[in-house]
Amino acid sequence: MKTEGIKSPSAKYHDMAGSQRIPHKNPHIQKVAVLQSKPNKEDALNLIKEIAHKVSYLMKENHFKVTNLVEFYPRDQRLLGMNVNHGSKIMLRLRCSTDEFQFLPMECIMGTMLHELTHNLFGPHDKKFYNKLDELIGRQWVIEQRGLYDTFLGNGQRLGGRANLRSNRYPMTGISTNTGIVRKRGKGVKLGSLNP
């Protein structure tokens, strides 16, 4: 059996952000990828990164997690997005169904992204689903108007090392949690007073 010409299903996707080392600025999405067989891959990557960045604050507020955010180009022209396993993979159509060189408007892709994020909570398209979707759309509008983003990509390390914080919290200022030290100092004085 010859396997040279066979590509794995993931071979059609390529995380260009990894090769260029440019983060997608959303700590709630692990990976973004675009279709490599389509034209204007760089524009598609920038578009999907922008979508990921714009929904970062909303995802933080709702504790949404997405493992893979990827572009897809399905044969069904009406299909704009899919959510697999409540956020394991979200697939978005970025391009017009009749012209793969032309991208859909940002508002359309954003609406699809919010729809798919709602599927992280609710599977069927019922009243609960649409109520939550309406809530997310309204909240996303407010977030965009205020320019809010969650781009905290660090580990969350405490500054100042890992010293025993119970014995002496603020050594440079003389403020301590040890009550014996506080009692020895006596009462404070009135600011501006010459009396000790």
From TrEMBL:
GO BP, sorted A to Z: DNA repair
Listed GO CC annotations: nucleus
Domain WLM: 20-196
Top-rank taxon, per record: Eukaryota
Gene Ontology molecular function terms on file: metallopeptidase activity
Disordered, as annotated region: 1-22
InterPro entries named in the record: WLM_dom, WSS1-like_metalloprotease
Name used for this protein in its record: YHR134Wp-like protein
Originating species: Saccharomyces cerevisiae (strain AWRI1631) (Baker's yeast)
Record lineage: Eukaryota, Fungi, Dikarya, Ascomycota, Saccharomycotina
